[in-house]
Design a protein that fits this description.
single chain; about 210 residues; mainly alpha; Cytochrome Bc1 Complex, Chain D, domain 2; 8 helices; rod-shaped
């Protein structure tokens, strides 16, 4: 009995001594800290998740700049009308270019329409001529006023003569000029082609809008 009591006292003494050592070295606090959550961490506010940013709206594609609207003719001729019908039905002296005073401003557009209508096949891409007469020399077979050129291009040389137009000059040509009034898309397009012709072979002052003398 005494021996058992002695063993118990020894064990208790060792345990007490070990506990004392833990207290003295601060190990007790370390053990307690590892067994409880960090107060600072527990008290720290939880970061709020930011909502996703709304998708950016795609910018609409920039539209190509539209071509300027056709100029209204002073005599009321429809700019969008068919050149062949206009040349065939319009009274003599009624066709006046809306670009007579500023043909340079639409000359570039006119050259594009000249090329798309196939005029370069006979007169060359720069108007220097080929199978047809050059547009860049000073010879105008029927005249260079707007109305004469409009009817010549739209009706062809034979159609122009049938309406009483006569030659004013001569040029070496392979054959008569065919009508292009149903090839050129509109009256305004034809006026722009004429504007380009004037830009490479300018008429004398006042001649662009002068009525035909025939």
């Amino acid at each position: 009995m005494l021996r058992a009591l002695t063993v118990i006292l020894v064990v208790v003494g060792i345990a007490f001594a070990g506990w004392s050592m833990l207290v003295m070295t601060g190990a007790r606090d370390w053990i307690a800290a590892t067994m409880t959550p960090d107060k600072k961490m527990a008290d720290a506010p939880q970061a709020k998740a930011e909502p996703p940013a709304p998708p950016k709206e795609a910018k609409p594609a920039e539209d190509a700049k539209p071509e300027p609207a056709p100029a209204e003719s002073a005599n009321g001729v429809d700019p969008g009308g068919n050149p062949f019908e206009t040349a065939k039905t319009a009274e003599k002296g009624s066709l006046k270019s809306p670009y007579a005073d500023n043909y340079e401003s639409v000359a570039e557009q006119g050259h594009k329409k000249y090329m798309s209508a196939g005029c370069n096949g006979c007169h060359g891409g720069t108007g220097g001529g080929g199978m047809g007469p050059p547009l860049s020399n000073p010879i105008w077979i029927y005249g260079n006023d707007g109305e004469t050129l409009f009817r010549l291009i739209a009706l062809g040389s034979n159609g122009l003569q049938e309406r009483g137009y006569v030659r004013k000059g001569s040029e070496m040509v392979v054959g008569p000029m065919p009508p292009h009034g149903n090839i050129v898309k509109s009256n305004d397009d034809l006026w722009k082609i004429i504007a380009w012709i004037w830009s490479i072979n300018p008429p004398k002052p006042g001649e662009a809008s002068a009525p035909p003398s025939q």
